[in-house]
Amino acid sequence: MRKLTIIKLKILMALILIYIGSNAYLILECILSKEYIGALFYCIVFLFSLWTYYGIKHEAKVNNRIDGCHELLKIQASVITDEYMKGMYNGMEFILAVIEDREPVYASKVLRNNSGKDNEK
Question: How far apart, in whole angstroms, are the C-alpha atoms of residue 19 and residue 37?
Fold first, then answer.
């Protein structure tokens, strides 16, 4: 799910770069033909496109970092052996839940789900 979102963001970034290039061309064309109102309009659109591009670039970077946090959380879930490691997992889960604006799934529930899967095998 997250990988698909990152791919969509990168495609959108590429399209915006093409749009920025075409705006730069239109700005130059308007200036050379002495249509300064048109050049001003395209300059505003150009700046808005740059703003959008860097906003999307930042969002893609944040999504990559959150994916890394999820991987660390999976690793931590696999090494819960004592109360200290359980507390470490719960803290990591709580921080990630706050960032993602969701309810945390604490270690006790994860351990219950894992033991239920082990019993089914």
Answer: 20
